[in-house]
Every structure is written in structure tokens, then in C-alpha cells.
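Researcher: Re-running this chain for the archive, since the previous output was lost when a drive failed. Same request as before.
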Amino acid sequence: VKKGPEDPILGITVAFNKDTDARKMNLGVGAYRDDNNKPFVLESVRRAEKKIAESNPDHEYAPIVGVAAFNKASAELALGKENPVFKDKRITTVQSLSGTGALRLAAAYLGRFYKDHKVYMPNPTWGNHIPIFKDSGCEIAEYRYYDDKTCGLNLEGMLADIKAAPKGSVMLLHACAHNPTGVDPTLDQWREISKACKERDHFVLFDCAYQGFASGNPEKDVAAVKMFIEEGHNIGLCQSFAKNFGLYGERIGALSFVAKDQAEAEIIESQVKILARPMYSNPPVYGARVVSTILSDAELSALWRKEVKLMADRIITMRASLVEKLKALGSKKDWSHITNQIGMFSYTGLSEQQCDKLINEHHVYLVRNGRISIAGITSKNVDHLAKSIHEVTK
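Model: Regenerated C-alpha cells:
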């Protein structure tokens, strides 16, 4: 067995930690930081933890499907409590080990029962998507997504690839805050994408890792998911509560499937349980209790909504500040894509050579494809970042 390569994104943090320059910035890892560049623990989470502790809970195993109250709350957060799928009992939700675990369970299900159908992913996509599905026995392909010339969406290419894919293929879509580009379709564009998928009878799997964190409005961020269901798609949905609840280390997520009826939903759940059992037996209870406590309490839920909007607004503000400072420095480049993009990440349009200069000459650490985590920008370091980007792009 040969030694494997380091994860390229986590390797950025290793290099950053070795750097002794006071100006150094880590724009690689996707975790939210406050304006002092410190981890942010939500007050709603703190209060929920206190409430849980006061209830003197046990530490018994959860069922294979996880904590029932959490599963209900997570599905309702994504689809809305009044969604007909709940009344019709044609949805099944299983707690997972964050969004990665939800994707792995979905991939294992597709690899076992839908293996003759390719899984199409956007180019580019989150780096972990590819090994998750490959390791689960799925054959993967890609559809065009990002336009290098506009630093925006290549809708024409995307639709053409969706329509050219074999009927019944799997289409992996980012529900909001596309990682790594920050480029999301508009609602009208989502309708075109839905129609194209429907015409080809594709199965749509949404990766929803940033609900509320993208725009600050949890309902707005899942508009595409609800639209697809309304238009007759029986979707898969992978949710993460790492970013929007700040529960990175608790590994809390959910996998839902919308089926044609209750009987099919029960069949799907039975098979997902069979897949989960040898994988990890059952999921951890703590994060599930925190999320379900917040979402089932009107006061805590309202506080969470304020806090997730605060996080989203800080990201949006930092985008605007960076563009403003680049303009003030006299940059002749069009940086509007940075403010047009949304969520934690931005595809800056910087070349590998420019990224190398940022790292080696300006102590700004980022992925060599030009992706930066906006969460690593603060009011105290944005000037250094703007000057550094201006220097390497003049």
C-alpha cells in the first residue's frame, strides 16, 4: 500500500499554520468565522444545549433512521410544513452523518438499485462529490455549469448536457450557494432546468448544505427544491446542518427521498436502513437534539433565523467590501461576479499562476483554481486581500 496524497484543501491549512507572517490569510477551508476571524457559536445553539442538559437526557442508541423529531424538523425546514408530501406520507427521511454522510447513503442506494444510470455532476463541483459516488459504485459524468468568460452560469451548456444525457440519468444539483463557484441559477433558470430534467425522466438529487446561509432567508434558499417537487419530480435531498447551525463537528445531516406514494417511501426507507446498518449502525444523537430543539421552539427558531441572517449578511458585506476596495485601488478588471455570486465561496477568476503569487508573495492561502472562502475575509484583513489581488492582476 502506497502513501496516499494529502487532501488539497486541508493541505492549505497545513501550509497556512506554518507561515509566521502576521498578514497571513486562510481562504481555503469552508467554515464560517466572525469579523475577528474566530469560530462562531450560535446563541440559539447555546440555549438549546442548556435546555437539553436541563432535561437530563440519556445516551441510548438512536434507531438506524436517527432521531425522529430531528428527521421531521429537517424535512419540514426544507420543504415547508404544509407541503402535500407530508400529508400523503410519501417522503422518508433518515438522519445522516452531516451532508457528506447523506450523500454517501444516497450514493450507496443509487449504486445498489440504480447502478445502470450515470450520475451527472456540475463542472466544477465540490471535490468530495466525485469520490463519494465513485466509491459507492456509481458511474459519474458531468454537465457544463460554470462559464469562465462571464464567471457566471453556462445555462445553455447545462441544458444541452441535461437533454443529451441518457433518459433516467441522475442529476446532482446544488440547491443553493453552489460550491465552489458561488454561482446559482435564477428562479426562471431553475424552471428551465426542471423542465429539461422532467422531459428526460432524470432523477434529481439535491445537495443542500447552505439553507439560510446563502441569502439569509431559509425559504428562499430552497425555492428550487420545492419548485421541482411542485413540478412533479420525486427528488432525493441531502441536507447538512454544519454551516447554517454552526454544528461542524457534530456531523448532523439528513437524507430524504420523495416517493410516488407511501408504500414506495416505506420500501426506500427499508433499503436505506439496510445500507446504513453496516456503515455506521446508527447516527449520533447530540446534534440532532440541538437542531430539533431549536426548530421545535418558536423563540429559539426565531433567534436562529436572526443568527443565520447575520452570518449570511456578513458574507454579503465582505463581498461588496472586497469589490469596492479593488475599484478604489484602480483595478480595471470587472469584479462584479464576486458580488453576483452567493454563499461561502467565490470563484474569483484568478489563474493558477496568480494564486501561486498570492500564496508565496502575499501570504494569502487559497485553492489554486481561484476559489476563496469569503468567510475568511474580515474588516481587518480585506485591505490586504484587495491590495494583494490587485498586485497579481495588474
